[in-house]
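Batch manifest, entry 17 of 40.
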Amino acid sequence: MAETSYPVAGGGAVTDAAYEKLMADVTGSGLIGAPTVSSLMYADSTGRQIKLKALRQAIIRGFRWETDASGLTVPVPANISGYPRLDLGVLQLDRADFRVRFLLKQGVPGTNPVAPPVEQNTLADGVWEIPVGTVRVASTTTTQANSGLPSIAAADVTAMDYFLAPPGIVTHSARMPPAKPGQVVTQWDKGRTLAAYGDQYHLIGENGPRVKLAVKGGWDNANVWVTRRNGFVFMHAILYRNTPGKTTARSTDIVLFNVPDEYRPHEGPLMYLAGTHQDWFARFYFNGTTGDVGILGYDNALADNHFVVIHPVTWPAKY
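Output type: structure tokens
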């Protein structure tokens, strides 16, 4: 029985293979940058060739790849088969020398050609690839092929840009960083997890506390609760009236309590809620703008010691 740990304490050497094992699951594999930039692989009708943008970077299982200020021009093999061909551009980590290179893998011509598969071999002597785009290569005569045809146009290239997401962070809800596409942020004070799409955050997970709400004077709030779960608010309420000697005429509009801003609907100013007054049906309302919840429709006078019940209800929450 034995154990292994690396990098070795005291500055011992780390092989490329050991480095890959150490970093592959930490860094992931993909392009570096925001997906709003133009695609890495493209063509511009300047010959039987495709091009890679200048000053672009990628990480493949911990190994960094870059293009210089001139970018990269890659010739496309001729196709005289009589059928179109679909080639695949990949960034390939070759474990023979642990270098990452761009490679254009040639497909098999056919009536409906299919691009070659991506290889992701976990063996030490294999290769690991991520796709960056496909290129459709029309068939030509031998004479045309010898003259550099077909010229590859922009429409012949389909980009497959896989970007690495920024590292996830944990922070306070009042100290949120600017949204970066794909970044996941956990708000430790709110128990919420958000993911950035474009320049905005969207809630993807939440486990908020159960909160008792204060009620208006003359009512008992022992059973008025709201909670947030995964972008939704759940609310239920049972209120007892505690106003000795007071009776209110039927269908009088009475505000019962107020819902704090963070529990109000994501959109929509007004909702009607179902419930009961004693043993009779009653109608309630929720003003999503002000947060006021009240009783509006009831057929019998509302007296001291009467209770009202708002049936459990849910709605999309603000985030």
